[in-house]
Predict the structure.
Amino acid sequence: ASWRSELIAHLNRYKRFPSGAGSGGVATISFTINRSGQVTGSRLLRSSGDSVLDAEAVALPRRASPVPAPPPGTGGSSIGLAVPIRFSRWAWWRCSCPAPGMSGATAWTS
């Protein structure tokens, strides 16, 4: 499996559907990790339209930290990623990020 697919699977293990949220939605977040996989920052890029889901999406990477460390040669001292987080009240066990039609985490280096 690729590092990106391992990273997505790791995030999914820590994803929760928060109480007080509506029926679901997709929030896109960006987060930064260091070379050892520690999450150093997280922020909302695109709202799901539900502030409770948005807050959960932003909290997810820190709760899942450390994430799988990037392979040698990937990025610099820190790596930024943008990930859509899909929430569904009725199928939370099947939730996945990325959303259908998206290839997964988008990475950039800094």
